[in-house]
Amino acid sequence: MTAAPQSDAAGPRVLPDDDAGRRAAVDVLDAGGIVAFPTDTVYGIACRLDADGAIDRLFAAKDRPPDKAIMVLVDDLEQANGLVEVGPAARALSSLWPGGLTLVLPLRPGVPLPAGLTAGTATLGVRVPDHATPRFIARAVGPIPTTSANRSGEPDARNAQDVVATIGPKLDLVLDGGPSPGGIPSTVVDCSALRPRILRAGAIAAGLIAAALEAAGIGHDVLS
Predict the structure, then answer these.
(1) What is the C-alpha to C-alpha distance for residues 107 and 118, in angstroms, rounded to an integer?
(2) Residues 22, 175: contact at Cβ < 8 Å?
(3) Nearest CA to 157 among 59, 64, 43?
(4) pLDDT of the residue at 1
(5) Rounded-to-integer distance, Cα 12 and Cα 39, Å
(6) What is the DSSP code (8-state) at residue 69?
């Protein structure tokens, strides 16, 4: 793997979110860089999972506290299977994918992951987004650690201009896909315990999550 690109104080490259732009994003990630792109919820920033120091750069780009874990975006549930244990609850809730639903799942024993990714926990958040760009990238480079493209604690970025204005100098490339269609972060469901529960309300309603679990005969606390 080549050396990581160095972000320019004047700002990152901004390319259209098309086939050429997505291929350029893959090249940047392969080189250890940080890329911003649209998703079905808000704009996100991502790095390659196995790139040296990339997770640290991702945290630094948005001043994210080190005790907050980062999720991964995947093309489908099976792509995450090498990282996490996919149990019955996850299988049931995968019926709501692609979409704004993040599942927190137990890590597979012995899988080496950067310590910063999970904030020292034994779980990992996984999501299949309903957007072609992150899924294209995930198919090309594998599960991609991703977090919202904003400074920690500030409003989410809804377009490429917001990304460039807030954290642009810390990025290598921004894909401009226009306004994000969703604008609401994903719902986060903890599936690491016996009874799934919602950790963060978001794009997918609790009632839909409860219905999917109940249809599979799985007890839950998502409506508590």
Answers:
(1) 9
(2) yes
(3) 43
(4) 42
(5) 19
(6) -
Sheet holding 44-46, edge to edge: 13-16, 173-176, 35-37, 44-46, 144-148, 71-73, 123-127, 101-106, 187-190, 197-200
Chain centroid, CA 138 distance in Å: 10
With pLDDT > 70 as the criterion, what percentage of the chain qualifies? 96
Q: What is the pLDDT of residues 107-155, one digit of tens each?
A: 999 888 887 899 889 999 999 999 999 999 999 999 999 999 999 989 9
Please state, in angstroms and rounded to a whole number, the distance separating the CA atoms of residues 164 and 174. Answer: 8
Q: Is the dihedral of CA 125, 65, 162, 204 positive or negative?
A: positive
Side-chain-side CA neighbours of 128 within 13 Å: the count stands at 16
Rg (CA), the chain: 17
Residue 98, preceding bond cis, omega within 30 degrees? yes
Low-confidence ranges of the chain (pLDDT < 70): 1-10
- The whole-angstrom separation of Cα 141 and Cα 22 is 12
Locus of tokens 């020292």: 120
pLDDT number for residue 111: 87
What string of H, E and C letters represents the secondary structure of 97-129?
Answer: CCCCEEEEEEECCCCCCCHHHHCCCCEEEEECC
Q: Would you mind telling me the total number of residues written for the chain in this entry?
A: 224
d(C-alpha 166, C-alpha 36), whole Å: 12
Distances (CA, A) of 143 to 117, 170, 178: 12, 22, 24
| CA 55 to chain CA centroid, nearest Å | 12
pTM above 0.90, yes or no: yes
